[in-house]
Amino acid sequence: MHTDIHLRLHALRAADLRTEAALFRLSRAAVRPTGGLRGLRGRLGWFLVGLGLRLVHRPPVRVARIA
């Protein structure tokens, strides 16, 4: 394939991807939740992260040895 054709195809594909990304951003902005639900979801998510970290960092259980 000639380099000029390859470059032109790349430029067309990049323009298509930019257009698709712009449309996706616009559609996500229209669907984005506002108000209390967003805050509640964030607080719940961070609570679950903290709970998981506490479970991971729990010291191991030691079994008593009989001498």
Task: Explain this structure.
There is one protein chain. The chain is elongated, with a radius of gyration of 26 Å. The chain is built from 2 helices and no strands. The protein has helices at 3-31, 36-56. The model has no long low-confidence stretch (mean pLDDT 84). It has 67 residues and is mainly α. 0% of the residues are buried.
Strand content: under 5%
Largest sheet: none
Task: State the order of secondary-structure elements, H for helix, E for strand.
Answer: HH
Shape descriptor reads: elongated
- The average pLDDT value, as a whole number, equals 84
Termini Cα gap: 79 Å
Total number of beta strands: 0
DSSP helix count? 2
Helix content: over 70%
Task: Outline the fold blueprint.
Blueprint: H1 3-31, H2 36-56
Features:
single chain, 67 residues, mainly alpha, 2 helices
In short:
This protein is 75% helix and 0% strand. The chain is built from two helices and no strands.
